[in-house]
Fold:
Amino acid sequence: MFAYLFNLAFCCLLLYYYRDGNRDSRILFLYPVFLVWTIIIGGQYSVGTDYPTYLEYFSSENTIQRFEPIFQFLKDFFYSIGLRGQAMFFVFAFINVWAIFKAFKKFDLGQYALLYFLLVTISSFFNNQMNLVRQATAGAFVFWAFAEAFDGNVKKSVVLDVIAMGFHYSAVVVLPFLLFRKLTFFLTKWPKTLLVITLISLFFSMTLAQYINTFLFDMLPNFIKQYTYYSVLRSSSYATNVYGFSNVLPKVILIPLYWLSIGLLDGDELNEKEKFLLRFGILSYALRCIMNITMIISRFALYFWLPSIIPLYFLILHYYNRKENIYAYAIVAYCLLPYIAKVFMGKGEYAYHFFLFS
Structure:
């Protein structure tokens, strides 16, 4: 718990120090963030159900289990130069932070401290990285791919998504968003409707998830069930216990903030690219919630965790730039308190043990 609270205090300190977006100081900002992020996340001990499997995999030269090609290559390479066991978690934590800050730079969102704060408190990405080692790294590269695609570099975005697939094949799901901007624009056209659908989907996730899971699972071809381990998931408690009120509440309480951010689309404070990013952020938030209705597609939601923070980024900056600091600080506190509650409850990925002391 102390490590996460320290990082939270670190986020708030950065948020205050870089509140005016001093671009000349960015390099001074990046070094400590890279260091703190890599040490805290790479040093997590026994986080999530897959940790023992990955630790054994990272500690052995020859394993029966094989993974996606780029992930496999990096593991073999770093193993050959002496980085083994827990050291590999540090490697992937560093890769994640590097790819994400490349995306921040490409999006040209100047307030890195605010983005880092929202990534930690709102996106769910920070605490889940080493529980989902392969897919989290894929998610970082997908976020970068979005940044390139929305800047007009479609070919580079596809290459980045192919790299993401080299860590987790499920990254293929974002290809339509990269290749067909008109489709993406169409899906973001009615942000208020998206939020209403999101609220309905969160209700369904508490009441009908088990039945939807059963229906969709029965429709899957047998080879998909076997290859993706859905049979194991279907027979486990994961299919029925993950959608409780405590899981849904943190998402529901954010909907008013996203609704409030929609008002920025009517003014001239944001340019056209920024307005598109805001709408895409709302779409991302809707998709991360809607996909959680069923375990069949819930893994795809991870690719929309990071872009879902963008509307809140613009909303906080809006009030700060207008010198309405009380509203900006209120939203920061609103984002902060649920995360603090999760850390103090210390369950799952929010419980922290450093590998040297465990």
The chain is about 70% helix and 0% strand. The chain has a mean pLDDT of 83. The two ends are 14 Å apart (CA to CA). Residues 87-107 form the longest helix (21 residues).
